[in-house]
Structure formats: C-alpha cells, structure tokens
Amino acid sequence: MKAMKTLQHFSNDQKAYLMYQKRLDSVRVESTWKAAIRRAEQEVKRRDAQIQKRDALIQKRDTQILNLTLEKDVQIQEKDAQIQEKDAQIQQLMALLNKKNI
Fold first, then answer.
1. Which residue from 20, 22, 63, 74 has the highest number of Cβ atoms inside 10 Å of its Cβ?
2. Structurally, how many domains does the chain consist of?
3. How far apart are the C-alpha atoms of 75 and 77, rounded to whole Å?
4. Is the dihedral of CA 50, 55, 56, 62 positive or negative?
C-alpha cells in the first residue's frame, strides 16, 4: 500500500521521483563500496596471516641452519683438537726415535 502511494505521488511529481531514484542509486553505490571495502579488508587480513606464517617458517629454518652451523663448528673444533693431540703424540714419538738413534 505504501509503495502504491509512493508511486502515485511520483506520477504526480517527476522531480520527487528523480530525487527518489538518486537516493536509491546512492544507497546501492554505498552498499557496493562497503562490500568492496569489506572484501579488501578480508584480503589484507588473509595476506597478513600468510606473511606471518611465512616469516615464522623462515625464522624456524634460519634457527635450524644456525643450529646445524653451530654443531658443525663444534665438530670441527673437536676434530682440530684430535689432530693437535695426534700431532703432539707424533712429535713425542719422533723425539723418542731421535734419542734412540743417537
């Protein structure tokens, strides 16, 4: 009934009808923009979550690499210590052999 009265009123007044159409258009445009903004905000949140996840994986990988590097450094130091010990033993044996041959 209200719609009929509105349409009847508009048939009598074209200017009011055009203004009513403008209001409807502006509401539609506003709704469209709000939906677009909402979708864009959701996309930003999704991408932020992806970036945080990727950063966490990178940090985990970097930590693993650092730990492996530290383990390798320790192994190298242990090997160096063993080599030095063997060199010292060889030097002692060489000194003993030189004493025996003199």
1. 20
2. 1
3. 5
4. positive
* Residue 17 to residue 23: CA distance in whole angstroms: 10
Could you tell me the residue range of the domain that residue 43 belongs to? Answer: 2-101
pTM (predicted TM-score)? 0.54
- Among positive and negative, which fits the CA dihedral 69, 71, 76, 81? positive
**Burial (CB count within 10 angstroms: exposed 0-12, middle 13-18, buried 19+), residue 75:** exposed
Cα 47 from Cα 5, distance rounded (Å): 50
In angstroms, the CA 18 to CA 9 distance is 12
- Residue whose token pair is 């409807």: 24
Question: Would you give the distance in Å from CA 43 to the centre of its chain?
Answer: 14
Q: Cα–Cα distance between 18 and 13 in angstroms, integer?
A: 9
Tens digit of pLDDT for each residue in 41-87?
999 999 999 999 999 999 999 999 999 999 999 999 999 999 999 99
CA atoms of 75 and 82, how far apart (whole Å) = 11
